[in-house]
Each structure stands twice: as structure tokens, then as C-alpha cells.
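Sample intake sheet
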Amino acid sequence: MRSYAESLPGVVFATQNLFTCSQDSQEQMKEIIKENQLNRVVVAACTPKTHEGIFMDTLTACGLNKYLFEMANIRNQDSWVHADTDEEATAKAKDLVRMSVARADTLHPLEEKKIPVIQKGLIIGGGVAGMNAALGLADQGYDVVLVEKEAELGGLAKRLTATIEGANIGDYLGELVARLTKHPKIEVLTNALIVGFSGFKGNFTTEILVGPERVRRKIDHGVVILATGADEYKPTEYLYGDDPRVMTQLDLAAKMEKGELEDPQTVVMVQCVGSRNDENPNCSRICCQTAIKNALHLKELNPDMNVYVLYRDVRTYGLLEDYYTEARQKGVFFFRFDAEDPPAAESSADGMEVIFTDHVLNRKLQVSADVLVLSAGMRAADTEELSGILKLARTAEDYFMEAHVKLRPVDMATEGIFVCGTAHSPKLITETISQAYAASARAITFLSQANLTLSAVTAQVEAEKCASCLICVRSCPYGVPRINADGVSEIDEALCHGCGICCAECPAKAIQLNWYEDDQIICKVDALLEGVL
């Protein structure tokens, strides 16, 4: 491959390394660039998704414009997928290298602009996630505005009593609210509604209606953390709301906490109510551990009580499995049911008659329960209007969607906006706290900089070719293009994500994407078909 690369037009030096991305290889690359006075660099290695930035930094350290770099992905696109065909894989690697060298010849320097950063954060949501995220920013010295639509802070956690490990959530919540409201760097706005949003990373402006009087305020800030939370699903199944003996797990926990639960002799719990169905196909994650936590509490109140848990799958992941084992040891009965044959419940004078199929006995069983407890799933808070204002993507279940589940787990697709807690997905309170700190840490990577450098990979409009057809306006997923006073499409490079959709859709070819211009793509095709056509 080295000798082949040296034979390509324009190549004056070629070498090979075992680990090109290692620190030693980077230092060696710097020396080679300086000694040979190279003005373009092509690396044939792994994916640019994770390593392109490393090599670009190397070019910058040598005084070269970082956009004079091209990378051939001969790992993911070649050696990994053609591991059993060495000769064909080598031929393909040559094609990929030849295409990259051809493209490198068309590259030209691009200049990146810098924009100042407003060192203030906006937190949307005043639950456990939002308050921890706010403290995460404020404790690092940054001003924070926390916006909560309700009159009080706390969110769904106000209905929670204790964790399965035994920590008192009420006490924790009280301490958290006290820390938050006393913090000199945090401004709390309750009864607040977001009605407008504009700007770009480091320079956002949000319009808010505050208080019962709906006073309009404009807040300039550099980052946004979404912590809108979630709610408990309100069941329509199993006579919930019609019979006081039917309640959710949160209702049961509250009654036990307040001592309002009359001495039941038999309690039946039904899992997956409002989850793992056609309307909400995903698991709510919290239901199994909540049922086991409450079952253990019931057994502490009365060891002779009969507690039945009717489940589809017990999902006490991680160390929570120990509590499931403890519940079995203390005499909690677990019966599995199929989704096609769920338990049925009828109200009677003697109690709630619950009928279900036991797979061991292969027959129907009937239990007369004093209390029927439904493990209701979690549903995302109503964020349809908010997501429309901020132009953010949501999942089919209305949770906010992260940019990448592994590489950017708390980032939204729009840079400078982050997500945490149950606004992202169902999770335990301990996981919510961890993710809140993760979001605040990511936000600080923006706020800690006086200026942000904008990517030069943005779309540019050739005004003389633009016909104002509005196709770019309609096709852009981020709503960036607009028609200016001259009747020409205009793209703000600070807002542009460089996705290239507008370039592909423009019928007049009036839009070019920097670093992916037409000739820079076509030359690769020509190089691939060299000798074929």
C-alpha cells in the first residue's frame, strides 16, 4: 500500500505506522510535514468520526490549515467488512486511498470564525435533574436561571418517599431546594412559560412569561439544559379511579408513609401497566424495583401479609437483583403472565378479585385482594410546544432525543443544548442525579470558553443563482435558511450544522457546502472509476 500511495499523482511522501493516532506517531507526522514541506495530508486508517480531529490538530500544530486534511476509512469500510477476502480488500483499500488523494488535491484553506460566549446557563425544569444541573453550573461560578412551569420546585420527586436503598427522598429534596434557593448564582423563576427562543451555541435568547401576571422577560444565555421530567401514567385499566382499593405504586408508598394504609391481609401488584404495549412499547425501567421496594415495606409492616407480584419480566438490573432475592426470601409471591393473557380484576364486596394464569400449574388462579396496586409506567412531560419552540427532536414516546447514544449521550443535536433526567428517558433518581451532573459538565465545556470557534463546514449561497424557490427553507431540519430583503436565500453560518441537505435539494445548485463542494466529491468518483470508463 505504501508503494502504491507513492505512485499516485501529487504524492511526494508516504509512510506507514502501526497506530497512526498514537502520540508518538503524531510527533513523527509533525516532523515529516515540516521536513518535506507538505501542504496536504491524507491518512488511511480508521473512522474520521472519532479520529479526524486528532489529525486536524496535528496539521494546525504545523502551521497548516486543518481543512487541508483528508482521511480514508480503510478500517470500518474495508478491513472489518472484508476480513476474509484479503486480495479484494487490498484492491478496495487502494481505491479508497486513490479517491482520498484526488480529493486532497482540490482542498483549499477555510477560515473559522470566533464568537463570544455568554457565560450563563438556562435550566428548563425544576425537578431533581434540573436542580442538580443548576447547582453543577453554579458551584463552578456560572450564573444560572432555572425555569419551572409549576409554582413549586421538585417535580415528580415530590410524590416519592424513599429509594429502594432506604434513602429519604423528602429530606433530600428539602435540602436540595434550600441549597438552590440560597445560592447567589442561581435565579429561580416559577410559574414560568417559555414562549420564544433564538440564537446559537454560546449566544441564545429565550423569552419567558413569568408569574401569574405573565411578565415577559428576555434572558441571554450561552447554554440550555433540558430537565422537563416525566409523570406517572394515569391508568385506565383495572378499575383505577372507580374503586378506592385500586391504586398506583406511588399512591401505595404515600399511604404507607403517612400511615393511612389500613391493615390489608392480601396485596396484589400488577406490573407493566401503561408500558410495553402498543401505545408505549418501551419499558419504564423503574416499575420492577418500585414494586419490590413497596413489597418489602409491606412485609416489614406485617410479615404475615400475602403479597403477590404479577409480572411479565422482572427487570431489577445491576445490584437491584439483591432486593428481588430478598423479596423472594421474605415470602413475596411472584407469578409471570403473558402479554396476550394479562390478569383480570373484578370488584366485589369481599375485595378485588384478581384472576391470572399460573404457568407452573398451567391453570387459572383467583386471589381476593384487599388492595390492588398498579405499577404504572412513566410518561414524558408534555413538551410538544417546547420542542417546537426550541426546534428539538423527540422520540416516538416524546422524550428528548440525544445526538448520539454513545458518543454524545447528553447532547442534543443543536449544539449548546443538553438533556438530563427523565426528560431523556425513564430512570431512577440516582441515575437522574448522575446524568444531571454529566449535562452540567458538558455545558461547562462551552461556558468555560471566552469564545467559541465555529466550524467552517457550512453552506454558502451563490446569490446570483438563487431563485428564491424556498426548497432550502423547507428542507433544512434546523430551520436555518431564510429569504432576506433582497429576495435571496441566506444561511447564518453560526446556525448552520453543515448537514448539506439544502445543497442536495437546491434545484439551481446555488448552495455549496464548504469542504464538500461539488468538485471535491466528483473528483473522488472520477478517481474511483479511473480505468473503468
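Comment: The radius of gyration is 29 Å. The mean pLDDT is 94.
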